[in-house]
Amino acid sequence: MSAAADTTSAPDRFRLCRSWLFVEGASEAAIADAAACPADLLIHELEDFTPPARRPEARALAPAAYERWRAAGKRVAVRVNPLDGDGMADLKAVMRGRPEIVALPKVSGPEDVIRLADAVAALEAAYDIPPGSTALLPNIESARALRLTFEIATASPRVAGCLMASEDLAADLGAIRGPDAAELDHARGRFLVDCVAAGVIAVDCPYTWRDDAGAGADALRARRLGYVAKSLVDPAHAAVINAALTPAVHEVAEAERLVAAFEAARAEGAARVMLDGIEVELPRYGNAKRLLARAAALASEAGSGQTAAP
């Protein structure tokens, strides 16, 4: 008899995961190293990071790899290949390891998500996995998919979030890549709006240069837009991304001061309050409350050992 499925919504189960690291699928060394990496969530990558000839090897490594990662307090995901390619063979093998999330690359529309959801449901039944417990992460990698992000994100209640893949999307757009990623500004903004509207996590694209400071700056820029999660391909970037996506001590102090000032003004019957030259109204107050709640949740999670401290 399988255990009861977690009734928490798919997005809510992963809201505190800041860094989503892709790990080479057939590399035992990379899999072992990932367990000690401070990334919050590990993605066993069977597509771009695993040559076709080595995919059977990667599939065989999946169950033990996922168990090792869970023992290290990590959230566990896998990216299979497109279902018209090696994806179904990938899925049948890796589902034995009970990944929490299945990511699908090259999604072109909601029909791809529905097909994946049906396949995952069948394998949950076959492997005695709690029904509905496996979440999905569609990858947005083309202009067509970008225009359909909301429809893709709402195609199944299993969708925890969507991930924007920078290299394929930039290639599809004909954009010239640069470390500042300015060529993807419009895409990142549009993608975030659709994910927020759909109520799922927007996982920002990875920073693909070997530059820790650049990765941190890119993550800070993403956070300013509203992102709370970012993918990465270099384990060395995990710490700076976690730090960028975690409210800093001074931010918490400023938010506490803003909340106190606004609540004091409201207690006296005022609609807003002037603080440091800024008119603080209800939206700013709400943002400050959310920042404090997230900071507290991340601190609690780090204390429990579920995710790494920034």
Short description:
This protein has 310 residues and is of the alpha/beta class. Helix content is 48%, strand content 14%.
Keywords summarizing the entry:
310 residues, alpha/beta, TIM Barrel, 2 domains, eight-stranded parallel β-barrel, two-stranded antiparallel sheet, 10 strands, 48% helix, plasmid, Pyrv/PenolPyrv_kinase-like_dom, magnesium ion binding, lyase activity, Citrate lyase beta chain
Could you characterize the architecture of this molecule?
This protein is of the alpha/beta class and 310 residues long. It folds into 2 domains: 12-244, TIM Barrel; 249-304. 48% of the residues lie in helices and 14% in strands. The chain contains 12 helices and 10 strands. The strands form 2 sheets. An 8-stranded parallel β-barrel has the order 1-2-3-4-5-6-7-8, surrounded by 7 helices. Strands 9-10 form a two-stranded antiparallel ribbon.
